[in-house]
Amino acid sequence: MKVVMIGAGYVGLVSGACFAEFGAQVTCLDVNTARIDALAQGHIPIYEPGLADLVQRNTAAGRLQFSTQFTGTVEDADLVFIAVGTPSRRGDGHADLKYVYEAARQIAGHLQGYTVIVDKSTVPVGTAREVKRIIAEANPKADFDVASNPEFLREGSAIGDFMRPDRVILGVESERAEALLRELYRPLNLIEAPILVTDLESAEITKYAANAFLATKISFINEVAELCEKTGADIHAVARGMGFDGRIGKKFLHPGPGFGGSCFPKDTSAMIRMAEEAGASSHIVSAVVTVNKQQKERMVKKIEQALGGDVNGKRIAVLGLTFKPETDDMRDAPSLTILPALAERGAEIRAHDPAGMEEAAALLPAEVSYSDNLYSAAENADAVVLLTEWNQYRGLDLARVKDCMRGDAFLDLRNVYERELMERHGFRYICVGR
What we know:
The protein is of the alpha/beta class and 434 residues long. Helix content is 42%, strand content 14%. It folds into two domains: 2-197, 3-Layer(aba) Sandwich (Rossmann fold); 199-434, Rossmann fold, CATH 3.40.50.720. The chain has helices at 10-22, 33-40, 51-60, 98-108, 127-138, 158-163, 175-184, 200-231, 235-243, 264-278, 283-306, 335-344, 357-361, 374-377, 398-404, 419-424, and strands spanning 2-6, 25-29, 64-67, 79-82, 115-119, 144-148, 168-171, 195-198, 315-319, 348-352, 368-370, 383-386, 409-412, 428-430. The strands form three sheets. Strands 3-2-1-4-5-6 form a six-stranded parallel β-sheet, with helices on both faces. A six-stranded parallel β-sheet has the order 11-10-9-12-13-14. Strands 7-8 form a two-stranded parallel ribbon. The protein is globular and about 70 Å long.
């Protein structure tokens, strides 16, 4: 089976490499020449555990190749996936679909024989039908179907998510399209992965609804964490008590500095806009976005209070910059809100991150400096802020950290440590919801 993946970014590259691992002949196509050249030379432009080995193995086996040309690739494809970016449109929060629609126009002129065009990008309801209209208008003789196959990949564990998915969603309009997609995903039959076949609109909304619900759990537990702080309760005990309820579940009930990343911020915003356009309510999702913004602001105040109400002239060591561990992704990371606010107030910030410092340096104020060694970042610091729970930070040499500092405040915004342990090492320990 021949597959073309339009877009060699995070979703396209991971999906393309995994389909090649399934045995398909895959071409990842991208207009970014530098990216394609780098991939052809074996250089992976994103940080994702296991991806480099997967790409190398399938490239060497001849199942995975890279191109910048629609000509000579799309014509022979059985399935063409659109996996381009759909960022929030500046000004109104809608998903920006210009790259999706441009891909559709490019695909249309190269179709020969029956082909399934698959939306893999996260797109609002109605996008698949618009892609179908664009292609039919540009090439009235084309024999094709359009399908929706949303991705559910978590950064840092994307390959495992693809190979052992909770479910695969296939939004289709014809038996031919369903048959081709089922054949592509046939290796998952061995692990009995659920495959749900729906209409196009249901598949599109499922992706947004899933992300919005997970974001809701995060904002909810962060709001409860504030209540715990003000009443003397322990958010960990509360979350465990909730999580034992099978109707609720324990996942995503972890308090922290707010959600970020490539999905939740833009997808909640897009879902609000979709609801507005459809004349439906979005009160819950709107509240989720508001609470998340407030949570990041609350973390700034928490750091200020730990340093006597004024961070001017104070040296703050920050451990972790990316929105989550095991990725170099800085998109909407809490650090992009918290650190500039501290810098504006006169704080001297020295940061460390295992993978995200290069990306962070282009996004954070020039006042933020960086250290390749997490302990040197803490040198003469008045406070240490643990902002992203990388494994390297879970087993810190606490005595060494304390000896490096001139102050004693340790703000654990991910609740990695226990108060008794931290106080035994001489820290003034501040966390979230406890």
